[in-house]
Amino acid sequence: MIRRDMTEVLQIERASFEFPWGEDDFIQCLRQRNCIGMVAEHDERIVGFMIYQLHRTRLHVMNFAVDPKCRRMNIGSQMIAKLASKLSPHRRSQILLEVRETNLDAQLFFRKEGFKAISVLRDFYEDTTEDAYLMQYRFQQPVETETGSQIARLAG
Hints:
Elements: H1 6-16, H2 23-30, E1 35-42, E2 45-54, E3 58-66, H3 75-84, E4 94-100, H4 104-112, E5 116-121, E6 132-138, E7 153-155
Parallel strand pairs: 3-4
Antiparallel strand pairs: 1-2, 1-7, 2-3, 4-6, 5-6
């Protein structure tokens, strides 16, 4: 993710969340040394993004969204697969993320991708008193499969 991606990323963010991040939130997060932004492109436009943090033993997804017009096209799954490919049994062996209790679509998506809810985080969000589910994905040995790619490029 680079600065010129921000306009499209912010459009996807606003279309995806009731309480979206602002540009300052993205910039503040991406200025951290352990924070990485990834965008998914299709037909030369950004159709999804992910921001994650590198920690010693895990990756932590801070923000993740796919353009609502491009959902159910395997884009989110490909972004998760790209992130999961960075795991290893010896170093970073898990991915963690939080999902709003009311965001059933995200819960079901991440569950389909192999995540499990491991705890409830009470009053997690600053903008509401809503709880979050802490979800975890653990490293798995890769399985060779042939899949068609909807994404022209994953940058990150």
